[in-house]
Design goal:
single chain, mainly alpha, globular
């Protein structure tokens, strides 16, 4: 079984691929506050995805991969295409894929102990 860390080290620095790249580097390079893939998916889900299990149920794999390819290209995909409206779970699945492929977690390793202390304190005050 391959070590996930080794896979990430082989990624080209400065790659246009928004998936699997360091979030801080990507945001600095794109001059955005939120990655476009997350912004567009969140807007779509707020408008069309008010259904049970939007993040629990998976979308069709081919639709997820097509969306990923479109976000990795220069052009922002049209999420109002019929294929995405019929499979709204693929948009939620793409968000999960984005977060899963980040090389560093959103809740950073450096701050992990502070997060756990904070959680412990909030549980004790309940």
């Amino acid at each position: 079984m391959k070590n996930k860390g080794n896979k990430q080290k082989t990624k080209k620095k400065g790659s246009d691929n928004v998936f699997g790249c360091d979030l801080t580097e990507h945001l600095q390079g794109s001059a955005q506050d939120v990655p476009q893939v997350l912004q567009k998916c969140a807007e779509f889900i707020e408008r069309y995805g008010i259904v049970d299990g939007i993040y629990r149920l998976s979308g069709v794999t081919s639709n997820i991969q097509r969306l990923r390819q479109e976000f990795c290209s220069e052009v922002c995909p049209d999420l109002t295409k019929e294929v995405y409206l019929q499979d709204i779970h693929c948009v939620g699945s793409l968000c999960k894929l984005y977060f899963r492929e980040l090389p560093n977690p959103l809740l950073t390793y450096e701050l992990y102990s502070k997060f756990t202390v904070s959680m412990f304190r909030s549980i004790c005050t309940m």
